[in-house]
Amino acid sequence: MNKEPEGPGWPEILTGVGTFAVLLIPFGLLLALLPQDRPVLMGVVGSTLGGFLGVGGFAAAFSLRIRALRPFGFTPVGNWWLIIAAGVGIGGYGLSIIIQSAYQTWFGNDDPQVVLHAAARGGALPFIASLLGGALFTPFGEEILFRGVVANALNRYGAWAGVGLSAVIFGLAHGVSVILPVAIMVGVLSAILFRQTGSVWPSVVLHCTYNGANSVASALGFAPVQ
């Protein structure tokens, strides 16, 4: 009887997050080379950025030593958990508005994702493209890395690490701006779901729902953080 591989550990965390950071360089250069007077184009391309970085980081961690999906949380889960995850995503979006308002009151408006809002408002095709990139691909890529690898590995040290520390790492990966506290909040909610279910799929659904609500609100004229 074959023994199932153990879950990810520090080698996978360092490899996955390190690859995520390294990949930021070429993708950042790509965005810098795009016409700065084409915010819609920049927003469409930028909406997929997290997906490529997350998938790249996960692929590096996956290829390191385990090379099986199940230990990374690719396990089935009951439909009720997916429904709960979608509801938590909507609730998280409402909470993000409060966090953003408080941040802007204290520190001013420094939203670095203006181009993402421009893409959401740029017409039907840019909206659909940015929705596919920002509300499907990016949540999937980020969740399989930051929950499937990072939170998964840190869960062995308890909830403070599996939830709290992994959420801080996730937040810092989004930069130090108004996005930071919002990303930490989403990371906490997502990590709690992962810790409860052992599956990345509720976390993916939560993140997709949150980003989707964000994109729709932006298209309707709001300027939420994504």
UniProtKB/TrEMBL annotation:
Superkingdom of origin = Bacteria
Q: What stretches pass through the bilayer?
A: 13-33, 40-60, 80-103, 115-137, 157-189
Q: Which UniProt keywords apply?
A: Membrane, Transmembrane, Transmembrane helix
- Which Pfam families has this protein been placed in? Rce1-like (PF02517)
Q: Which residues form the CAAX prenyl protease 2/Lysostaphin resistance protein A-like domain?
A: 127-212
Q: Does the keyword Signal apply?
A: no
- Does the keyword section mention Transmembrane? yes
Name of the protein this chain belongs to: Type II CAAX endopeptidase family protein
Species whose genome carries this gene: Novosphingobium kalidii
